[in-house]
Amino acid sequence: MFEWVNLTFDLDPVPPHGLNAIMFRPGEDPGYPLPEGKLTDKEIAAWLESFVDKLAEEDKFSGAVLVAKNGWPFFTKAVGQASQRFNVPNKIDTKFNLGSANKMFTAIAVARLAQEGKLSFDDTVVKHLPDYPNREVAEKVTIYHLLTHTSGLESYWAAGADKGWVSIRTVAEICSLFVHDSLLFEPGERFHYSNSGPIVLGLIIERITGTDYCEYVRKNIYEPAGMTNTDCYEMDLPIPNLAIGYTKAEHNQGDSPYARKNNLFSHTVKGGPAGGGFSTVEDLLKFANALNLYKLLDSEYTEIVTTGKVEMGPEEKYGYLFGERFPGGHRAIGHNGGAPGINAFFETLPDLGYTVAVLSNYDPPAAETVGSKIIKLVTR
Fold it and tell me: Of 5, 9, 156, 209, whose CB is crowded by the most CB atoms within 10 A?
């Protein structure tokens, strides 16, 4: 299957202009043109109904979609299967893996501690983790660097796969995968997306609060927002109404190139500060409402977290584990997530009142394809 994407190449401005990063967003597939002109919400819902059905029929999307205006959904739809083995259909309240989208919860947790005066964004790691074994990281890297992916830390996925994800369940166990690695560059030098930074933030949250990371976000984010179907679920437990991810990205020699496999052995068995938690599109709307109504942070800290600070792409910046961009001149904040059999799209547009949540148990860009179309429709 061929996917249309927009590629952005981030080059080092200093000779010899090395490649810092390659970023992509779903591109416009000429086979799925948008309708002309400005549409009403009712017309958007009608178009999405047929669009999502078409993607499902072509086996390009499996998941749930929600679009809300001023806190109330005007379009919801679920297609595909949560379990292909048992023919269980996806529903609006099906729990999907968020991938990196739940980095937003880590950002809110850190900002709550800052709001309470328990940390500063300028604090170095060593202030809160004096026994952190990598002294270079402990003494040079700040909480700001960890929140903005400017720390110089690399990601830990290869090490996790080598060790075996099923044996890794705590923040400390994930940290052990990379704790002795050298920095890729001096902290603050540039943006480099890294899953390791949020893990160190998770350790700091646990040290300050004396509480397990997952328990802390459950009590201080999910419960205040009314998110009853969101958590760091363990994949080897019988969690009700949980979608299994299906991927075409991992094949053995001789496999059909079109066969999908479940992703149970290709990612963490339990979610944590960098990703891997589960939620529903309905709970993501509750999160957006709580965020926009300042139920999780006050207005000052909400703006601090969600305002872009580091250039990430054309007209797109990264804040504190939140992305900020301006499609059609309108502010959109949120975070996506993607991995084999996992794709999440979440953005809320405060000035227009829209929230878009799309979750899929297929490979990227399944959810992003749908979400990006919706954003273009509502920002015209």
Answer: 156
pLDDT in tens, 187-208: 999 999 999 999 999 999 999 9
List C-alpha distances in Å: 285 to 90, 289, 307, 335: 18, 6, 20, 13
Domain extent for 299:
38-48+59-378
Q: What angle do CA 111, 116, 117 make, to 5 degrees?
A: 95
Which of 286, 302, 292, 151 has its CA nearest to residue 227? Answer: 286
Question: Which pTM was predicted?
Answer: 0.92
Answer whether residue 324 shows pLDDT above 70.
yes
pLDDT reported for residue 231 = 97
Q: In DSSP terms, which residues pair with 262 in a beta bridge? A: 246
The CATH number given to whatever domain includes residue 192 is 3.40.710.10
- Within the chain, strands assigned E span 5-11, 19-26, 63-69, 72-79, 81-83, 88-89, 96-97, 246-247, 261-262, 278-279, 310-313, 316-318, 323-325, 332-334, 337-339, 342-349, 354-360
Please, what sign has the CA dihedral across residues 354, 358, 364, 366? Answer: negative
User: How many folded domains does the chain comprise?
Assistant: 1
CA within 13 Å, CB half, 192: 20
128-162, pLDDT tens digit by residue?
999 999 999 999 999 999 999 999 999 876 665 66
- Whether 18 maps to a domain, the answer reads no
